[in-house]
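Box 3.1 — From sequence to structure: Nudix hydrolase domain-containing protein
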Amino acid sequence: MTHQPVRVAIAILYRDDKFLFQLRDDIPNIVYPAHWGFFGGHLDPGETPHEAVIRELQEEIAYFPPSISEVGCYSDPQVERHVFHAPLTVDLDQLVLKEGWDMALLTPEQIQHGSCYSAKADRILPLVPAARQIILDFLEVGTLAK
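Predicted structure (token representation):
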């Protein structure tokens, strides 16, 4: 029996040269608890990655991007990550955080450093390693549409 990787769709949302990150809940039984990562999630059966990322953004922060483009796919034996990017056209206070502990716009310097302070958690917490690498690759290639 072959193990199939979990398929997820995630969104790089950006505004004013910063990137929106979700602080994952601090629950021991989830992957990367209390880490900063992307909004997004698992694909439902029969769902395309594009459909999944739109659904996840609505479910997690009540946001519908005006446009969204696929960046590519990052795969490893455990996870197949379909990565999309879109502008964040509203202020943070207009988003409704429905999943996760906190959210913040991180600078490229914070992403490079690999951690960010959360007022809700009252501590500095790390980025999910794959999320950090995806953003660094994204910035290096210069595919960010301004």
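Summary of the box: The chain has a mean pLDDT of 94.
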